[in-house]
Write a structure and sequence with these properties.
By secondary structure, the chain is an all-alpha fold. Helix content is 59%, strand content 0%.
């Protein structure tokens, strides 16, 4: 942990925000760049103004509003279905109650169709500052090479395991810095093991030096 922060710095978590907006933003971020997902989210809000209007809209109209981010039809279906499920369960379109919900918040979100472990973890960490750990492809690669994750493990089990292993108050820092490590050093091909701040803890890296 300290080695990563010495190398990449200590990222600061943004202030808490609306969990529903964050959840939809993360859905829109899938399979696209951060810049595109931000523009796509703004387009959606500009087009419909409220989540009630998004729910009332046709999937094709939602897809048109989010076309820039890719997978528009699939994402439109997930978003409309999600809003419908929330409205049916809560009678209003809000997830603000998640901030005060203890351990059940993850289970609550995972009950929604089309919402996976990473999306759930990102929503709870970024919006509510809950100590849950999101894994992406870079983190999976790094932790498998290190020997922390087995080669065959489900997303759900990997997320639960990292919740147990991540140091308290360091979930966001570890999440961001492992992604930085995976992008810059522990690359899919030709990893720069000699530059890795975690080389002494890495099963794969120790075989490369």
């Amino acid at each position: 942990m300290q080695n990563l922060e010495n190398t990449f710095g200590e990222p600061q978590l943004a202030p808490k925000s609306d969990p529903l907006a964050m959840l939809i933003n993360i859905i829109l971020s899938q399979a696209t760049s951060d810049a595109n997902s931000e523009r796509t989210f703004r387009n959606l809000k500009k087009r419909f103004r409220t989540w009630e209007k998004v729910l009332a809209a046709n999937e094709t109209d939602i897809a048109d509003a989010i076309r820039l981010g890719g997978l528009a039809n699939q994402k439109a279906r997930v978003i409309k279905d999600l809003l419908g499920q929330i409205k049916a369960a809560r009678k209003q379109l809000s997830l603000a109650f998640l901030e005060k919900m203890p351990d059940e918040a993850r289970d609550y979100l995972q009950n929604f169709r089309g919402i996976g472990p990473k999306t759930v973890a990102c929503t709870l960490l970024f919006a509510c500052h809950k100590e849950v750990f999101p894994l992406d492809t870079h983190i999976f690669r790094v932790l498998k090479r290190m020997g922390i994750l087995p080669e065959r493990i489900t997303d759900a089990k990997a997320h639960r395991l990292l919740d147990e292993l991540a140091p308290p108050k360091k979930f966001y820092s570890l999440h961001v810095n492992l992604i930085r490590l995976g992008r810059k050093i522990c690359r899919p091909r030709e990893p720069l093991c000699e530059q890795c701040p975690l080389i002494e803890y890495c099963d794969y890296g120790l075989t490369q030096i």
